[in-house]
Specification:
With about 525 residues, this protein is mostly helical. It has a domain of about 60 residues. Helix content is about 60%, strand content about 5%. A hairpin with a 5-residue loop joins strand 2 and strand 3. This is Eukaryotic translation initiation factor 3 subunit L.
Length: about 525
């Protein structure tokens, strides 16, 4: 492991960082964590992972790395697998420090990124090819997959920024490209199968979920844990790999393949993915974004509304979580994506009243602009898409012997161009929609006169509307995203508007929650 910044009294103050120095609190932490891992004490592991590690990092290692794995080896009997887990935490902490705006740490080098990647490969190799007799918290297993994908994404961005690279960094990149990581689901020229797909297949999680539908498995009921003395590690890594694959395919712009990877998980049911809020948000964010890019606006709107309502209700319970800032960021991004969905395909009957109120407070002005399809509208679409989209990547390495420039924005610019082209194609659809909402029947000649176009052009616009408001779902069926439909018979347009379903239960639940909040406030006032 590469040494980094300064440390004093274990964490700051000016002394040079010594990777072999292990404070007493770290010795205790490692010894206890090792014992709990051996005993499969998931509760205690989770407490130390979520609480103890974070507190020690804040207190002792805010500006310096944790001690080297070799230094803590005596306190865990030199256990190979446990040291892989320790290094996973070590590198994740190093990445977090490097990306923190409040930290003075230097950026990670290509060598450090390669070492972190190699540690993940070694850890997953043990899970895939060895016998793992551990039970780890779902939170930690999700963080492994999430960090694995994040570090690949981060490396692709780092590798594509060539303009200010030093000769040493360029040399390291050339060496690293010879050992190019093989993460993506499609096979690269190297021909190796990817790690996440291997975890997915080896765990047989798709078959487990299928058997659960038939009542032959109890995966969701046990939250993925094995209470018969076995291990949950492979099974849960395979499960979270489905979400990781969805994310990586979204970063590549391959939305259809990404949705296929997530298909075994039924998002309409309460699943294990909802237990860890990070996996819940990541799954729905990327699922919704993929559907948006594939013109499945109704499906994207429905899922964004559900997750935004969930965050609205429960985010206060995660304020002390290390992921809280990320939760808030994704929350804001999904409101922006929801605004785009509703501007392209109004489906206000699909969103919750509380979510609708929040959306209007945030983006009402922009949504009004986006209905006009002028320069201001395109600027609003551009702004919201740029803010809310994933950080797209190009997996292939840049040519290092060419004039050095930055390529890290190329994939983003391509996706933005495709999105704005789609918006441009729908320029006239907003106008025709407003007319058709006013009539149950209208002749083509009359509507053409209103829209100031000839009849042939109007027929073309009507066909475009039909095309843009329909998409192919995961089962290959053509589904409509519009809140009304129409057909033409003898030059007369017949409009069929779907009536929104009245959800009386939702109304009563909202009122009950409001009264409970009022009672709680009154009780506080009474005690005061």
């Amino acid at each position: 492991m590469a040494a980094a910044a300064a440390e004093g009294g274990g964490g700051g103050g000016g002394a040079v960082y010594d990777p072999s120095y292990v404070p007493d609190s770290v010795k205790t932490f490692v010894a206890h964590m090792y014992r709990h891992v051996r005993d499969k004490n998931v509760y205690e592991i989770h407490q130390m992972y979520e609480g103890g590690f974070q507190r020690l990092s804040d207190r002792l290692f805010r500006d310096a790395p944790w001690p080297a794995a070799e230094a803590v080896s005596p306190y865990c009997d030199g256990d190979h697998v446990f040291l892989l887990l320790y290094r996973e935490l070590w590198y994740r902490h190093a990445y977090a420090r490097a990306s923190s705006s409040s930290s003075s740490s230097a950026p990670l080098t290509a060598g450090q990124r390669a070492e972190s990647w190699a540690n993940y490969c070694d850890l997953f190799s043990v899970v895939l090819h060895g016998v793992v007799n551990m039970q780890l918290p779902n939170q930690w297993l999700w963080d492994m997959v999430d960090e694995f994908v994040y570090q690949f994404q981060s490396f692709c961005q780092y590798r594509a920024k060539l303009k200010n690279k030093s000769d040493d960094e360029l040399h390291q990149l050339k060496q690293f490209d010879k050992l190019q990581p093989n993460l993506i689901c499609v096979e690269w020229n190297t021909g190796f199968s990817n790690t996440l797909k291997a975890l997915l297949e080896k765990s047989m999680i798709a078959q487990i979920l299928e058997r659960e539908k038939e009542g032959l498995e109890q995966f969701t009921a046990t939250d993925g844990y094995d209470y018969q003395g076995g291990s949950n590690v492979l099974k849960m890594l395979g499960y979270y790999s489905m979400i990781g694959l969805l994310r990586i395919h979204c970063l590549l712009g391959d939305y259809r393949t990404g949705l296929k990877c997530l298909a075994p998980i039924d998002l309409n049911q309460q699943g294990v993915y909802t237990i860890v809020i990070g996996s819940h948000i990541s799954a729905i964010y990327h699922y919704g974004f993929a559907n948006l890019m594939m013109r499945r606006y109704a499906e994207a709107t429905r899922e964004f509304s559900k997750i935004l309502l969930y965050i609205l209700k429960y985010k206060q319970y995660h304020q002390k979580s290390p992921q809280y800032d990320q939760i808030l960021k994704k929350n804001e991004q999904m409101y922006a994506l929801l605004a785009i969905c509703l501007s392209l395909c109004p489906q206000h009957n699909l969103i919750d009243e509380n979510v609708s109120t929040q959306l209007k407070e945030k983006y009402n002005d922009k949504m009004t602009k986006m209905q006009r399809f002028d320069d201001e509208a395109y600027a609003a679409y551009d702004e919201l898409f740029s803010y809310a989209c994933p950080k797209f990547i190009t997996p292939s390495p840049p040519a290092l012997d060419q004039p050095l420039t930055n390529y890290n924005q190329d994939a983003y610019r391509l996706q933005l161009k495709l999105f704005l082209y789609e918006v441009k194609q729908q320029q006239l659809l907003s106008g025709i929609r407003s007319y058709l909402k006013l009539y149950s029947t209208i002749t083509i000649a009359k509507l053409a006169q209103y829209m100031e176009v000839d009849e042939a052009t109007l027929r073309s616009i009507l066909m475009t509307y039909k095309h843009k408001m329909h998409a192919v779902d995961n089962n290959g069926k053509i589904v409509s995203s519009a809140d009304f439909d129409f057909y033409i018979k003898e030059d007369v347009i017949h409009v069929m508007e779907s009536k929104p379903i009245k959800r009386h239960g939702d109304y009563f639940l909202r009122q009950i929650l409001k009264f409970e909040e009022m009672i709680g406030e009154l009780e506080k006032v009474q005690f005061d």
